[in-house]
Write a structure and sequence with these properties.
There is one protein chain. The chain is of the alpha/beta class. It has one domain: TIM Barrel, CATH 3.20.20. Helix content is about 35%, strand content about 20%. The chain has eight helices and eight strands, in the order αβαβαβαβαβαβαβαβ. An eight-stranded parallel sheet has the order 1-8-7-6-5-4-3-2, sandwiched between helices. α2 packs across α3 and α3 runs parallel beside α4. It is globular, with a radius of gyration of 15 Å.
C-alpha cells in the first residue's frame, strides 16, 4: 500500500482529482473519493454559504476524504470556517495565495499541498513547511506557469527535498501514472483526463 496515500491523504489509491473550477461536479468529486482516491472541491469564487451547500451535497454522496482547493487570490477567507464544520483534512494552495493561507490551514490540523512550477516556488513551499508539494509541469491544462516539463520538474524537486510530491500535468493513461508512482512521485493529480 502507498504510505503517502494512506498516511497523509487518508485514501487507498494515490490519485487526486485536479481542481476543475466549475467542471468539478459534486458527483465527480464523490466518485473519485468512492473509488479510493481524493476528490477535490475548488472554492473558486464561492461564498461561504455556497461552499457549505456543496460540501453538504458531496457528503451525502461520500464519507471519504476530500480536498478543498483555494485556486486563486480571491477566495473568501470565511470559507475556512466552513471547512472546519465539515472536518476537511486536506487543502491545496497555489504559489500566489499559499503564503497567506498555509499556516492558517495547518493551525486547524489541515494538511496542505502547495502547487509549484518553478524552483523559486519550491523554495517558498519548503520554507513555509508545506505538507506535500504538487508539481505541475507545463503539459498541464488550466493556469500553467511552469517553464519545466513534468519529468524535469520532478527531478529538480527530488534533488532538493524528500518532501512528498504529487505529479500533475499531462498524465492521461494508467501507464504514465505507473511510470511516476512510486519512483518519481508519491501520487498523481489528473484533471483534463476526467
Amino acid at each position: 500500500m502507498n504510505t503517502f496515500a494512506a498516511d497523509v491523504l487518508g485514501c487507498k489509491t494515490p490519485l487526486i482529482l485536479a481542481p476543475l473550477a466549475h467542471l468539478a461536479s459534486n458527483e465527480l468529486i464523490a466518485t473519485i473519493t468512492n473509488a479510493g482516491g481524493i476528490g477535490t472541491l475548488p472554492v473558486h469564487r464561492l461564498k461561504p454559504e455556497q461552499t457549505r451547500e456543496r460540501l453538504q451535497q458531496i457528503r451525502s454522496l461520500t464519507s471519504g476524504p476530500i480536498m478543498v482547493s483555494f485556486t486563486g487570490e480571491w477566495e473568501r477567507d470565511e470559507n475556512l470556517d466552513v471547512l472546519l464544520e465539515f472536518e476537511i483534512q486536506l487543502a491545496m494552495v497555489f504559489w500566489w495565495n499559499a503564503p497567506r493561507l498555509i499556516h492558517r490551514l495547518q493551525a486547524h490540523g489541515i494538511k496542505v499541498g502547495w502547487q509549484i512550477g518553478t524552483d523559486d516556488q519550491l523554495s517558498d513551499a519548503l520554507s513555509r513547511d508545506a505538507d506535500f508539494i504538487i508539481a505541475q509541469g507545463l503539459e498541464a491544462g488550466g493556469h500553467v506557469r511552469s517553464p519545466h516539463r513534468l519529468d524535469d520538474l520532478l527531478t529538480l524537486i527530488r534533488n532538493r527535498t524528500d518532501c512528498p510530491v504529487v505529479a500533475a500535468g499531462g498524465i492521461n493513461t494508467p501507464s504514465r501514472a505507473g511510470e511516476l508512482v512510486p519512483s518519481a512521485a508519491s501520487a498523481v493529480m489528473l484533471g483534463t483526463r476526467f
